[in-house]
Amino acid sequence: MTNEIQEECKMNMEGSVEHMFHSFKTLRTGKVMVSALDGIKIDYYGTPTALDQVGSVIATDANTIVISPWEKPLVADIEAAIAKANIGVNPNSDGEKIILNFPPMTVEQRKETVKKMKGMGEDAKVSVRNDRQKANNDIKKLEKEKEITTDDSKSAQDEVQKITDGFISKIDSTLKEKEAEILKV
Fold it and tell me: Measuring CA to CA, how many Å separate 131 from each of 6, 127, 147, 157?
């Protein structure tokens, strides 16, 4: 019974860490990533559609992304969507493709990105701690209903704490690595 609670807790914590990694993809590091455009949708025949579904999106170098729509009339829609998204760059178009030239990041921008990243890490830690609390409450409920002994409850809660510590440690080490990557010029 407690094993099932611990496994569910572990799965929830893994989900929290995965969400943090997914959130990191929206951050700009020294090299521009096409994932910076993930949140941008255009109106494609009445349906909000991701950019990579209506054309090829390629990072040609560390500061440039080129979007080549499969249909020429979409160029103006894509330009408008990028301008509206306010991602820190103005789209340039030659009528066939859109070029996004991202300026190199300043030290202040890098520090601001690190601040955002640490906020995402804190959100993940809070989520992991909430998962721990839920698991511990489930274990205490089993003890209260006399389905497990006090000793079993204590050892199960200790195991949940070990799982939590492992995930918090993973988040901290990831934040440290990512910070070094962002601040590296």
Answer: 10, 6, 22, 12
| 43, HSE (Cβ side, Cα atoms, 13 Å) | 5
Task: Give the torsion through C-alpha atoms of 144, 150, 156, 160, to 10 deg.
Answer: 70
131, amino acid identity: D
Length of the chain: 185
Q: Between β-strands 98-101 and 64-69, what pairing exists: parallel, antiparallel or unpaired? A: antiparallel
For residue 71, pLDDT beyond 80 = yes
- 3 state SS of 56: strand
Q: What is the pTM of this model?
A: 0.73
- Residues 148 and 142: beta-carbon distance below 8 Å: yes
CB 67 within 8 A of CB 93: no
Q: Please give the domain boundaries of the chain with CATH numbers for all domains.
A: 2-26+106-183 (1.10.132.20), 34-101 (3.30.1360.40)
Q: What pLDDT does 114 receive? A: 92
Q: Say if residues 23 and 14 touch (Cβ distance below 8 Å).
A: no
Q: What is the pLDDT of residue 22?
A: 87
Instruction: Please name the amino acid found at residue 51.
Output: L
